[in-house]
Amino acid sequence: MSRTEDTLLANKQSGGSLIGYFPLGYPTLDDSIEAAVAMCESGVDVLELGIPYSDPVMDGAVIQKATELALENGFRLADAFEAIRKITSRVEAPVLVMTYWNPVLAYGVDRFAADLAASGAAGAITPDLIPDEAAKWIEATDTHNLDRVFLATPSSSESRVGNASSSSRGFVYAVSTMGITGAREDLDSQAQKVVSRVRSKSPDSVTAVGIGISTQQQVRQVNSYADGAIVGSAFIAAYASAGLRGLLEKVRELAKGKSSNEPA
What is the dihedral of CA 66, 67, 72, 74, to 10 degrees? Predict the structure, then answer.
């Protein structure tokens, strides 16, 4: 069973889910732990923790700046597992990591999965790993009972959408638009098409939409056709602007979009 999937499906009955991203180590490791816990206490249903990496090819300027600062302040991959352990001991929400594939390879695929499971994490999102090349990761996540989230994008071929749908565990990450992460005023209409394509391949697939979501209305819109809305850059920008208080105000604001009973 997948706690992430269970959470998203249960929340769908009452309106939907908010999946919140925050980078580990930003601006310091202790700060990121406190921010992550507070996000879960303020309306985030599934927590996504970014692992800083020196070549974040899919990250927009806001996330890049945050992860660069984390690395400058001394973050190392080995720090992630103890940080996750501290977070999961304090929250009920499923915790996933978002990590590029090279750090996992360098650490050791099975070792990474084992340490991730021991930390209490539910699994991982690997944005630059496609299912066709993920045999070792799929085996490791099966062994350690972890979720594995693959991406489906507007440019994905039908076969790749099918592979992402059948290979993912927890949810399928439907990318709303081509390009790097970052808040956008208008959510790309391609998002709904990607979700439809995923479900045409696997009707029971749980899907969440990410990239570009920054408003309460967008959270509501995405939850009307998908199983969760993923927000990252907007939360980091709020933290950069007004610290923990600004972050939590943004979480509470966007969390209102999960329920159709809340005014826009």
Answer: 120
Tokens at 27, concatenated: 């601006």
What tokens appear for 208 in the block?
A: 């969440």
Summarize the confidence of residues 73-80 as an average pLDDT.
95
Query: Contact at 8 Å (CB) between 230 and 19?
Result: yes
Environment class of 109 (CB within 10 Å of its CB; exposed 0-12, middle 13-18, buried 19+): middle
Find the helix or strand (DSSP H, E) in which 72 lies.
Answer: helix 61-72
Contact 44, 20 (CB under 8 A): yes
Give all domains of the chain, ordered by start, each with its CATH number.
3-146+215-257 (3.20.20.70)
Q: How far is CA 152 from CA 67, 131, 165, 178, 195, in A?
A: 24, 11, 8, 11, 8
Which contiguous run of DSSP H or E holds residue 243? helix 233-255
* 3-class state of residue 21 by DSSP: strand
Q: Does the structure show a pLDDT above 80 at 187? A: no
The residues that are catalytic are 48, 59
Please tell me the pTM assigned to this model. Answer: 0.93
Neighbours of 155 (CB within 10 A): 10
- Which residues is 210 bridged to in the sheet? 175
Answer yes or no: is pLDDT of 11 > 90: yes
